[in-house]
Design goal:
The complex is a heterodimer.
Chain A: H1 11-67, H2 70-81, E1 86-93, E2 97-102, E3 114-120, E4 128-136, H3 138-188, H4 207-249, E5 253-258, E6 262-266, H5 268-274, E7 285-286, H6 295-307, E8 315-322, E9 328-337, E10 342-349, H7 351-365, H8 375-381, E11 392-399, H9 402-409, H10 411-428, E12 434-437, E13 442-447, H11 453-468, E14 471-475, E15 478-482, E16 486-493, H12 500-516, E17 522-524, H13 527-549, E18 552-561, E19 566-578, E20 582-584, H14 586-595, H15 599-619, E21 625-629, H16 641-650, E22 658-662, H17 664-669, H18 671-683, E23 687-693, H19 700-705, E24 710-713, H20 715-719, H21 726-741, E25 744-747, H22 753-762, E26 766-767, E27 776-777, H23 778-794
Parallel strand pairs in A: 16-17, 19-21, 21-22, 22-23, 23-24, 24-25, 25-26
Antiparallel strand pairs in A: 1-2, 1-4, 3-4, 5-6, 5-10, 6-7, 8-9, 9-10, 11-13, 11-16, 12-13, 14-15, 18-19, 18-26, 18-27, 19-20
Helix pairs in contact in A: 1-2, 1-3, 9-10, 10-11, 16-18
Chain B: H1 6-18, E1 23-27, H2 38-45, E2 59-63, H3 68-78, H4 82-95, E3 102-104, H5 107-116, E4 120-125, E5 134-139
Parallel strand pairs in B: 2-3, 2-4
Antiparallel strand pairs in B: 1-4, 1-5
Classes of the chains: A alpha+beta, B alpha/beta.
Chain lengths: 798, 141
């Protein structure tokens, strides 16, 4: 800001100059106009004056002209000439000039002004009798005009001078001095301390007052803004210091780099993590200077991040860093684009996590007990089997009866044994072979080397021999010896399977058939095994479908009271009419249903259907009880005693209307559970039959132990029974024994009268078989029953 | 102005008969003047003509004071009152060149003057005009 204003730059000087200029211009123009106007006026006035002069003398002159009195005319003319502005007076009558008075001889063409007036008769207004002419003195008029103009001019000059003076004074006092005072104050003003301009005296409502007000407002706003700005600046400095501190002390390595990995800045942790020397200057350093194992992948991550069209995504990955001394460090690198073509990245040391992951993976794929791979490990090892993988043989090894040893001697011994087995297997294997423990006592071996059967016979045979040697174990601190043998199934890659899954299944099939044949040996996978398996699987599928499609139905074989030949009851038998295969025998599909867990559903269906039929027959007056076969798999939870009672109740049947047939296997399988199950059913009044008696342990003590009330003698005994053989003696013994235990006896498979006779002779209570009736459909049963009760009973020999 | 038709003459007669107390201008029978127009009378009485048509110096006679006849005469002749006529003469008298009419004390004196001077004229009621004078102009009022 300039402190002083030269006077010639000042408002006063400039406005004065403007006022003077305008005044001079106006003065000039107006004096010209005034001159002209004054001149005109002077002439007009002189003309008017002459007219007035004429008025005063007109009547006299008229009289003079009327009477032609020259003397009078002359007197008048001379009287007029006393007026200095007149140059000449001429009075004429119609006939002659009456008088002429003049100051000086007239010059022709002088432009003098003249006033003429006609003279009329005093007694006759319309009669012209002469003329009077007055010539004005131009010079004297001009002199008069000049004088007027001069006066006017001076007046104008004085007026202008006064106006200029007044304008200057007004300007000085009203504008310039207040402005200067305000300006001076503004120069000295310390706005930051809250000082404000004072409004000049008596200017509170003038423009100047407003200007000062505006300046004060503006100043206040500026001061406020500057205050905010400086606060922000201070905050920024603090923030920067804070972030610098964070940056420096961050536990994560932080860097900023361009797309080529040129480092723009990085913090201490970054240098420490990457083993980069931290120098004062950060320029000229590259991300790739650190010992990355895959620097190209890291740079690709940077470029991918920058190439991302959204430009916001953070990308991250783990990278391995290898130090000068070969020590390794895993770093997790996350990069985020900064928006200016560079990225900001953070580094964290994840070595520990990586190591944990690796060991976890190792754990997951390793069997802790034997140190072999587990199933997952094997899968991992053989995951990448391709058609180009060299042929190998997959051997599935299983210890025969290991479960028994485990159950009998405890897991600790079992584990000792497994470790010993693993040790022996390890010794036999080649370096190229792989081994995994894929089940409790199952091992899978991938054998490389020669793939001929001769070679494999030798190797697997030797392995089984080694494994069959006795094992020394310590049982409860005491030394003991265990004999156990192994079986093996062998499948070839690629002939018997293209992937691990197939190979394992093939080897397993081979193993199964070896074990089915008694074990302690090995066998090769045969396609027939596969076919059998597939056949079974198809039947399984069909069976699932059959239940839904209603292909399973019941037939009922009548049970005859041998004492009178009357119908005593029936056995419900399940049949499967396959739409393609025809009738599938129960001994094929029942075990299947047991295996695939369909037996419970089927069992319930059988029971419900039986109840429905029995209810119908009982309503028709047939007072019979019908037995239903129960599979070992249904006991105890597949067929809860409560469900049986519930069904009976649902169909309004007495509890002895239905009997359940179980086999000795049920009693063998889970003694405690079976006993409870049977007791509950018996408590509900439901009868339990023991089926196929004589084929199993046939222990009569079971009959006693379990509260059974009926035994069914297996048909094989009845079939082979003749008058004098052991089977007859056996049946006789069973009937006698059962009788002493209070049990009823049913003979199955009665096919001819000879058998019937023997049975009646022995005293067997009931019989069923083709001799009486084949199993019949539910809807035909009533008719068959009627036939039996009429025809058979009629022909009964007492 | 010559009378051109008997009809006009008749009408003039009729007019004369109607103005019973008519003003007339009389002249000396020797003046050689038979008739005068109103203009002639005006010019002679107000100083413009100093001579009659016959060449005689005209000598108009005015009545003195504010005689009623005098008032009637100027009223009829030029439509002015006596003050105006006096003011008129006042202007001319100063120049000295033009003289106002000769003043007679009464009508008889006026008639006498006319009878005595061949160029004299006077105004009288028609009834007062006798043998000594000739009526040269009849003034309609």
């Amino acid at each position: 800001m300039r402190g002083n204003v030269h006077w010639w730059h000042g408002i006063l000087a400039r406005s004065l100059m403007a006022v003077v200029g305008i005044a001079l211009l106006m003065g000039g123009v107006s004096s010209l106009l005034v001159n002209r106007v004054v001149g005109e006026r002077a002439y007009e006035q002189s003309v008017v004056k002459l007219g007035e002069l004429l008025d005063t003398v007109e009547s006299t002159v008229s009289i003079a002209a009327f009477v032609g009195d020259e003397q009078l005319a002359k007197e008048v003319a001379q009287g007029l000439m006393r007026n200095s502005e007149l140059l000449r007076v001429t009075i004429r009558s119609n006939e002659r000039e009456l008088a002429l008075a003049e100051r000086a001889p007239l010059r022709v063409g002088d432009g003098n002004r003249a006033v003429k007036r006609l003279l009329y008769s005093p007694f006759k207004a319309d009669e012209v009798i002469g003329e009077i002419r007055l010539d004005a003195d131009q010079a004297s008029i001009d002199a008069l005009v000049a004088k007027d103009a001069r006066f006017t001019g001076w007046l104008l000059v004085i007026q202008l001078a006064l106006v200029i003076a007044a304008a200057a004074a007004a300007m000085l006092f009203l504008v310039v001095r207040p402005i200067k005072a305000t300006s001076d104050r503004l120069h000295r003003l310390d706005a930051a301390s809250g000082e404000r301009l004072a409004v000049p005296e008596s200017h509170a409502k003038s423009e100047l007052g407003r200007l000062v007000g505006d300046i004060n407002n503006l100043t206040a706003r500026l001061v406020a803004t500057i205050g905010i700005e400086s606060d922000l600046l201070r905050q920024q400095v603090i923030d920067q210091r804070k972030y610098q501190d964070l940056f420096d002390k961050a536990a994560a390595g932080i860097f900023v780099a361009d797309r080529d990995g040129r480092l723009e800045s990085f913090n201490r942790t970054f240098a420490a993590l990457t083993w980069l020397q931290r120098r004062k200057e950060t320029t000229g350093r590259w991300l790739a200077d650190a010992g990355w194992q895959e620097p190209a992948r890291l740079l690709a991550l940077l470029r991918d991040t920058l190439a991302d069209p959204a430009g916001k995504a953070t990308r991250a990955d783990d990278f391995l860093l290898v130090g000068r001394r070969g020590d390794e460090r895993w770093l997790h690198v996350a990069v985020t684009p900064l928006g200016d073509g560079s990225v900001q990245g953070t580094l964290t040391d994840v070595t520990e996590r990586r190591n944990e992951e690796i060991s976890a993976r190792r754990l997951a794929t390793t069997d802790a007990l034997t140190g072999f791979a587990n199933r997952a490990g094997l899968q991992h090892a053989l995951a990448e089997i391709t058609p180009y993988t060299p042929p190998f043989a997959l051997v599935m090894l299983d210890l025969d009866g290991f479960k028994r040893i485990n159950d009998a001697m405890g897991f600790a011994v079992g584990d000792q044994l497994l470790m010993l087995v693993a040790g022996r297997i390890r010794k036999v294997l080649d370096a190229r072979d792989q081994v995994a423990r894929v089940g409790g006592d199952e091992f899978a071996l991938a054998l490389a080397g020669e793939q001929s059967r001769v070679a494999l016979d030798a190797r697997v045979g030797q392995l089984l021999r080694v494994l069959a040697q006795p094992y020394d174990v310590s049982v409860a601190g005491k030394h003991d010896q265990i004999d156990i043998a192994a079986s093996a199934g062998i499948a070839f890659f690629p002939a018997d399977g293209h992937d691990l899954q197939e190979l394992l299944r093939s080897a397993e099939l081979a193993l199964n058939s070896v074990q089915a044949a008694g074990g302690r040996s090995f066998g090769y996978f045969e396609p027939a095994q596969q076919l059998a398996v597939e056949h079974r699987r198809r039947i399984e599928d069909d069976l699932r479908h059959a239940l839904d499609a209603g292909e399973l139905h019941l037939v009922f074989q009548p049970l005859i009271d041998l004492s009178n030949g009357r119908l005593a009851g029936a056995e419900a038998l399940l049949r499967w009419s396959h739409p393609v295969r025809g009738a599938v025998p129960p001994d094929v599909f029942i075990p299947l249903a047991e295996e695939i867990g369909l037996i419970n559903e089927i069992g319930l269906m059988v029971l419900r259907e039986t109840c429905r039929h029995v209810a119908t027959w009982r309503n028709a007056g047939l007072d019979i009880h019908v037995s239903v076969n129960v599979s070992v798999r249904q006991i105890p939870d597949g067929l809860p005693p409560g469900a049986v009672a519930g069904l009976l109740e649902q169909y309004g049947l007495p509890s002895d209307a239905i009997a359940l047939e179980i086999t000795e296997g049920v009693l063998m399988h889970n003694v405690a559970a079976a006993q409870t199950w049977i007791e509950q059913l018996r408590a509900d009044g439901i009868r339990i039959y023991l089926d196929d008696f004589g084929t199993g342990y046939s222990s009569l003590s079971y009959l006693k132990r379990f509260a059974l009330d009926t035994v069914k003698i297996d048909k094989s005994f009845i079939r082979d029974m003749s008058a004098d053989n052991s089977d007859r003696a056996l049946v006789d013994a069973i009937v006698t024994m059962a009788g002493s235990l209070g049990l009823r006896v049913i003979a199955e498979g009665v096919e001819n009268t000879a058998q019937l006779d023997i049975l009646r002779q022995i005293g067997c209570g009931y019989g069923q078989g083709y001799l009486f009736s084949r199993p019949v459909k539910g809807e035909d049963f009533a008719q068959v029953a009627a036939h039996i009760n009429t025809a058979l009973v009629a022909g009964w020999q007492n | 102005m010559a009378l051109r038709s008997p009809l006009l003459f008749l009408s003039l007669l009729l007019m004369a008969s109607l103005a019973a107390a008519e003003l007339v201008v009389v002249a000396n029978p020797r003046s050689g003047i038979e008739r005068l127009t109103q203009e002639d009378v005006t010019n002679i009485y107000l100083g413009r003509y100093r001579h009659l048509a016959s060449g005689l110096t005209a000598e108009p006679v005015d009545l003195a004071g504010d005689a009623a006849l005098k008032v009637r005469f100027y009223r009829a002749l030029v439509g002015k009152n006596l003050a105006e006529i006096n003011a008129y003469w006042a202007r001319l008298v100063f120049s000295g060149r033009t003289r106002p009419p000769h003043v007679a004390e009464n009508v008889e004196a006026a008639l006498h003057y006319v009878a005595a001077h061949p160029g004299a004229l006077a105004y009288v009621d028609r009834a007062q005009a006798d043998k000594r004078v000739r009526i040269v102009f009849e003034l309609g009022e």
